Amino acid sequence: MGPGETTTRTRRRAVPWVLLGLWVAVLAVVGPFASKLADVQHDRAVDYLPASADSTQVAKIEDRLPGGESTELVLVYHRDGGLSAADRATAARQVADIAGREPLTAPPKGVPSRDGTTLMYPVASSAPGNDEKKRDAFVDDVRDVARSENGMDVEVGGQGALATDASEVYGSLGGPLLYTTVAVVAVLLILIYRSPLLWLVPLAVAGVADYLSMGVAYGLHQAFGTSISGQSSGVMTILVFGAGTDYALLLISRYREELRRVEHPYDAMRQALRGCAPAVLASSGTVAAGLLCLLAADLNSSRGMGPMGTVGVLCALVAMLTLLPAVLVVLGRRVFWPLVPVFGSEPRQRRSLFAAMGSSAGRRPLTVLAGGAVLLGALAVGALNLPGSLKQEDTFVDTPDSVAAMETLARAYPGQGTQPITVMAPTDRARAALAEIRHHRGVAGADPGRSGKGWTEISVTAKGAPQSAAETATIKSLREDLDRGETKGSYVGGASAQQIDLQDTNARDRLVVVPIVLVSVLLILVALLRSLVAPLLLVVAVVAVWGAALGIGGLVFGPLFGFEGTDPGLGLLSFVFLVALGVDYGIFLMHRMREESLNGSEPAAAALTALRTTGGVIASAGLVLAATFAVLTNMGLVQLVELGFVIAVGVLLDTFLVRTYLVTSASVALRRRVWWPGRLAREPRPPEPPKTRPAPTVAVG
User: Fold this and answer.
1) What are the pLDDT digits (tens) for 391-417?
2) Which residues contact 642 (CB under 8 A, 6 or more apart)?
């Protein structure tokens, strides 16, 4: 055995173990920070609101007032046949008990309904301040006191109760979301690999990547103040397992091929990484670039989701290109048992579904392309049936106590405001602002509240019902009236104002972020594929998928799921995720197609070979990614269900229709033009015939 062979064998043994040791060291450093992520996760209104909107300024000013942010509740006492004197006495006793136990900003006053069936007591306290745990404890304490007695219904609603119920749902995202995602991915990997051991490896590595992402996200928050919410941390976990498993599927598939051609697992893994790492790096870079475009959004929740999603994708990438190869090499070929790829063997020849699908697309490419385009267009029309903007009371899948209270108030106080509008006015202009508000035609009443730090709080009751057209008009006109003259500098906020700002800002963000995403992704694809036509083809395809997925949502959200509205951020977030993740699969396919073309294959043959060799991996990856996002449909908030549904449906459309049929048929139809203006677009020159010298003249005689 020569010294060179000895060195190679030593490297084969040492490198995987060195990588494993480095990962142990990294996790030891990151561990203490990962456990702190939940402590910096916040789901207050200011963490979701537009950065520059009036309602955001109101929330920030409330933080600086004595006691901090005010927690506002409404106690609702109701009896269908009408409240009796004993009922009113019970209500007064319970409210007095609450006032004795909790420091309230003002003595509660009962407001009876005209029909005598309902009595509401607005209650507010600044004691919890900005602490979400204290707010939840305050709401729970009020609910413990305000209980139904003698057949009288008692419900606790208001902004504080809604926030507590939403916090409970977001708090459940951590454990149940993680466990459900792991279970779904495990089942799919077992079905894909049909091995008792192999499925554990990528799943365990994805778990390590998730742990790493939590530590990195915490560091990002500490260094740059990145907003972390229950929604963004939940989506980060989904991306780690979804994208990470996709990269693992591609690497393991290539590694299995190389093990049949290369004797040693270490050398086979090096070959597999050379073959698939460029595509994985390009695809993850495209996803990260698309997500980072969300930094241009004005909505806090969207802007915070950009870096969180990027952290998830990049941590999954690093783990799958370093830790996963090391573990696979250490375990050797036996990890594939019982279907062990033996060195020198040939894979079992099976009838390939994707070869058959590719052949059908190759025979009539224009017909397939036209049919697919018509189908996607028809599905996209369903987006016109999407329900209107989601109201606060419709954000929960199951009706909590806070929503039941709002529904009761809407029935008992028709056309009357039951949810306060909060105005923050500079203290030196508060008197003028109060007078202006009280004379407003849409205002039923206004009362001054706390003062401090140069600001005075004014609680306003509108004549219109919460989130009605009348209340919306009142809020908008109040903002116009208070933004001039002696009252200039005042801000109008509160729960209903927040919903208005969310809708307006989402509309603005779509106009800004969507073009940035398209241009960024297109430039990356042009640099990667060295073509203009192929990148345009992929971008048009994913945009069509997005429209079709939204259309399917419009067909099922109202009629099938019974949702009363659509989250204002659904269009933007689903667009960013579907474009970034859809192009991800397009890169896998086009990269292999370009590789085949560089090896001399004709355009049609290159397209069909790429589909045959990558179709199974892309299908498996698409199923895993769709399943991980589908986990969100089991959560308790409508916006998460809608987002998970649209992305899952879009990924499936992209995997089994667009990538398989439309991109392949378009590539076959365009032939070499798909690589225009790169060198692959030019027809190869026929080889020149060998030059022959004239026969020498032989003299005779």
Assistant:
1) 877 888 888 888 888 889 888 887 666
2) 553, 557, 563, 566, 567, 570
